Amino acid sequence: MDLVPALEEPLKQPLKSVLGPATAKVMAEHLGLHTVGDLLHHYPRRYEERGQLTHLADLPMDEHVTVVAQVADARLHSFASAKAPRGKGQRLEVTITDGSGRLQLVFFGNGVHKPHKELLPGTRAMFAGKVSVFNRRLQLAHPAYELLRGDGDEAVETWAGALIPIYPATAKLESWKIGKAVQTVLPTAQEALDPLPDSLRAGRGLLPLPEALLKIHRPHTKADIADARARLKWDEAFVLQVALARRRHADAQLPAVPRTPRADGILTAFDDRLPFTLTEGQQKVSREIFDDLATAHPMHRLLQGEVGSGKTMVALRAMLAVVDAGGQAAMLAPTEVLAQQHHRSVTEMMGELAQGGMLGGAEHATKVVLLTGSMGMAARRQALLDLATGEAGIVIGTHALIEDKVQFHDLGLVVVDEQHRFGVEQRDALRGKGKQPPHLLVMTATPIPRTVAMTVFGDLETSVLDQLPAGRSPIATHVVPAADKPHFLARAWERVREEVGNGHQAYVVCPRIGDEEDDPKKAGKKKSPEDEAEKRPPLAVLDVADQLAKGPLQGLGVEVLHGRMHPDDKDAVMRRFAAGETDVLVATTVIEVGVNVPNATAMVIMDADRFGVSQLHQLRGRVGRGSAPGLCLLVTEMPEASAARQRLNAVASTLDGFELSRIDLEQRREGDVLGQAQSGARSSLRVLAVIEDEEVIAEAREEAAAVVAADPDLEHLAGLRTALDALLDEEREQYLEKG
Question: In 3-state terms, the chain is what percent helix, strand and coil (to 5)?
Fold first, then answer.
């Protein structure tokens, strides 16, 4: 790996520090900045113009802010307190203004002397602190500040130019201190190795990297900022896409056993048993998968489909095709409830074809085994034996499948359900179980916007199932504003009784279980302003089930289901619900994915504002799975104008998962979306916005593919190799190597 000495230099060293040791320590611990290069890539969040001031009227509550404003008024008050009983306590109140609003600053005790001397009316300064409310007015208590004096002053030189960069900061380190640290290391930007090939940079008219770094930290004009950001976005998109392109390229070089189903094998027998015909979409996607399985290189395909579009059926047919060709297939599910559910639905769909080696098994039958962490020893031993001998053609399990003890006779296909819960590493660990790399099919029920798919799953080909199977019913969704209109909530419970009266069943979903110990660590956690506004913990399954059984749903069969129950108990509850013995299931999000009870037609989601958009869409997909129409009620106490209510209105207004995933992404930060899936990438995106920068990502993907095709080892691109080393830590690099 080519070291870039100047940029690789640690900020904190035993002998000499680039910055003061205290500053370097805070940067490492609170901002994750360890080297000169890290600091140069810590970009300003926004810029203040000297002539313009921050909108004090728009300050967010409870956030750490930096504002540039002018002192309008400063008054020193005396008061009596326990510490200063004779009225000797001192409080300095300073009012600052920016033309759009006013903000009060307060200083107490010995802390009043310095600001009293310095913050005179007319003085301009940068102030940083946490916004709070006192007597219904916004204030900053004991803010840190830095005066902005006349042009000849050293402080102004520090923020050269008319634009003052405001950096993402912490309470321990103010924006201007980060700014000064950046100024200290900025000269080394000249030594930054450029990751973009010259031809690409010239062809797209992008700035050289040293110039872009200079302009983002010390812009003279807004055009400087735009040019720098355009260049740095390309870096992020391109380096990430090169990592993915190298992975695709390496995978394409690997050998795999082609798996072609027999004309009269288990797949044909299965298709003949089906009581319905596959949708056009299912047939098309199946063809894509079978074509991939027939090649001598491993398939890497992402199957994304709308909730209820029949992905499991497509995956099962792929698994049967591999069994036909003499191989084994493994399906990896994120939770035990889901693994059990898949095992149950696969064995039911296959019938006697799943009874290989047993009396009553069909001619082409195979064995379908379940493997989870909580199975008894005897059952587990038998399952492991069936896998090692090849007796079991299909295994369904949780990450217990990845353990060292698990040996396959001939693993030909790995199906991963709900991809966003499995990182690249887990996929690779399971793929390592095959004598040759097995084919890989990744299913996700959360539709992913195209750009995110290219960024997160760029190493996979994509198939989309966008039609619902015949017989699926529409789902009506309504928001129930429990605080504004309590009678709406009463009506919601009446609707549940009506559904049960018509022979159907219902789910009630709550954000928590309710038997949690009060965790002192959690108690001190920072709450969002919305939480603060409510002062109420999220509703819990155990409490709600109790209240419903004694109140509005009295006389109905109500049961609970949550993740902390014993697996056998969970399974028993699900079986009773699936058999129609229970009317109402009060559950946590363990039912989010894959649970299939066609007779369940209604769902009430309590505190719906506590769930994300995609999660609500997933949950809603559990109803309307039969011929009767589905009903989903989103109960919330949030006020009408709140962002949370707008989010719920969006879910109620459309059943299009792709549209919702876009809304979801726009409302959350990309980091949350890319978090785990990009696992191994040291830095999440800084200037690249996945939704807005669709074109950059698509173009970077094409350029990356061309570069890797021409020079897979990047021998002629030292700067790009260095940037990749920074993006991928050692472990991830090894995975890329072994594919």
Answer: 45, 20, 40
User: Of 645, 584, 603, 585, nearest to 476 (Cα)?
Assistant: 603
Return d(Cα 79, Cα 360) in angstroms, integer: 90
* Phi, psi of 120, rounded to the nearest 5 degrees: -90, 150
In angstroms, the CA 483 to CA 479 distance is: 12
**What's the pLDDT tens digit per position in 44-95?**
988 876 545 456 766 777 666 778 888 998 888 887 666 666 657 788 999 9
Q: CA-based diameter of the chain, in Å?
A: 98
Q: Give the number of other CB atoms < 10 A from CB of residue 604.
A: 25
DSSP 42: -
What are the Cα distances from residue 50, in Å, to 100, 160, 173, 349, 425? 15, 11, 22, 69, 49
**What ranges in 406-478 are assigned the alpha helix state H?**
424-431, 450-456
User: What is the full DSSP assignment across 12-38?
Assistant: S-SS--SS-HHHHHHHHHHH---BHHH
Q: Would the pLDDT of 529 be above 50?
A: no
Higher pLDDT, 593 or 114: 114
Instruction: Locate 390 and state its tokens.
Output: 């090849």
**Unique residue bearing structure tokens 């690099």:** 733
Is 521 a residue whose pLDDT tops 80?
no
Structure token digits, residue 680: 């191994």
Q: How confident is the model at residue 474 (pLDDT cuts 50, 70, 90)?
A: confident
C-alpha–C-alpha distance, residues 64 and 205, integer Å: 37
Task: With a cut of 50, say whether residue 292 has pLDDT above it.
Answer: yes
- CA triple 519-520-526, angle to 5 deg: 100
Q: What is the 3-state secondary structure (H, E, C) of 503-551?
A: CCEEEEECCECCCCCCCHHHHCCCCCHHHHHHCCCCCEHHHHHHHHHHC
Q: Indicate the SS3 state at residue 98.
A: coil
Kindly state the DSSP code that residue 354 receives in the 8-state scheme. Answer: G
For CA atoms 727, 732, 734, 738, give the dihedral sign.
negative
Q: What is the mean pLDDT of residues 665-670?
A: 60
Q: 156-190 burial, b if ≥16 CB within 10 A, otherwise e?
A: eeebeeebbbbbebeeebbbbbbbbbbeebbebbe
The per-residue pLDDT for 523 is 46
The secondary structure of residue 728, as a DSSP letter, is B
How much of the chain, in percent, has pLDDT values that exceed 70? 81
Rounded to whole angstroms, the Cα distance separating 405 from 412 reads 18
Cα 88 to the chain's mean position, in Å?
Answer: 53
In this predicted structure, the answer to whether residue 357 has a pLDDT above a threshold of 70 is no
- Exposure string of 405-437, with b = 16+ CB inside 10 Å and e = fewer, is ebebbbbbbbbbbbbbbbbbebbbbbbebbeeb
Q: Would you state the pLDDT for residue 211?
A: 94
- 239, two tokens: 């380096």
CA distance 692 to 427: 30
Contact between 670 and 684 under an 8 Å Cβ cutoff? The reply is yes
Token digits for 195? 């990751």
Q: What are the φ and ψ backbone dihedral angles of 564, each rounded to 5 degrees?
A: -95, 5
pLDDT at residue 99 greater than cutoff 90: no
Query: 17-27: per-residue pLDDT in tens?
Result: 567 778 888 88
